[in-house]
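Worked example 4.2. Below are the chains of a multi-component assembly; read each line carefully before continuing.
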Amino acid sequence: MKINMPRWFYQLASPKWSYDIMGMLLPWFAIAAGLLLTGGIVWGLAFAPTDANQGNSYRIIYIHVPAAILAQSCFMLMALAGGIGMVWKMKVAHIVAKSAAPIGASMTVIALATGAIWGKPTWGAWWVWDARLTSMLILLFLYLGIMALYSAFENKASGDQAAAILTLVGLVNIPIIKYSVEWWNTLHQPASFTLTKKPAMPPEMWMPLLVMVLGYYCFFGFLLMARTRLELLERENKSSWVIAVINEKI
Amino acid sequence: MGYFNSFSEFLDMGGHALYVWLSYAITLGIFILNLLSLWFKKRAFFKLAKRQTKREQRSL
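Applying the procedure described above to all two chains together yields the following structure tokens:
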């Protein structure tokens, strides 16, 4: 069976084309991330009103929720990239998945750490073994396992394959995280943002949160493209375009 | 400033200073670690590439 994909899809398979296009996009993502994150933090910390029940500890939401959202989208992106890499034998797709893994893991650590700190004044405990927290901890272990697989193989292509399979299997954890607050009794509050319903917070509270979510995504885009470009250079270091890049730099 | 009446009130976070500032510090730290690891990776690659290019030029 042969599926014809649009032209840009095949262009993405070219390491040099991907390297160049990401190099062009990179500075814009960095600028957007800097502006959105600075603006969002000042807005959320100093200008948003205090929560009637939780007081000012609720301000942790502005760094906690975006990290948790990104930790999950990053995993879905890795599954998509790994799947494309396996079906079309596309090396660039595997490199994107590999570059995303440590960023996703670090976002999961932020979500878990800030969640624990937020839990102490709100629930009276740093950690409870409830469904949402446990499934997020499993997400962290999946990330660490995937990162270990990438580096465990002498042959990079085998590592790519193994890690992509673990990512696709681990994908089952994502709906569990999402619905954990509905399926089980939990201390954790339901989603802050949904596509269908209005947020439960007033706009003065959720608007800075939206800015922070966008800022996190831009920061992620910047980091992902920068890491992917470096990985492309490392894997293609024998090809003429990489030698040209190196000669230009030194 | 903003929602708070004074800067010291802002720092105090209504008694939740420890929780709020600790979370923000950890998050900032992890963001910086991400940038640093990128920077070290980049430096290591070009350092190695430079050495290899020199070796190849000498062997020609």
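Take a moment to check your reading of the output against the notes. The mean pLDDT of chain B is 91. DSSP finds two helices and no strands in chain B.
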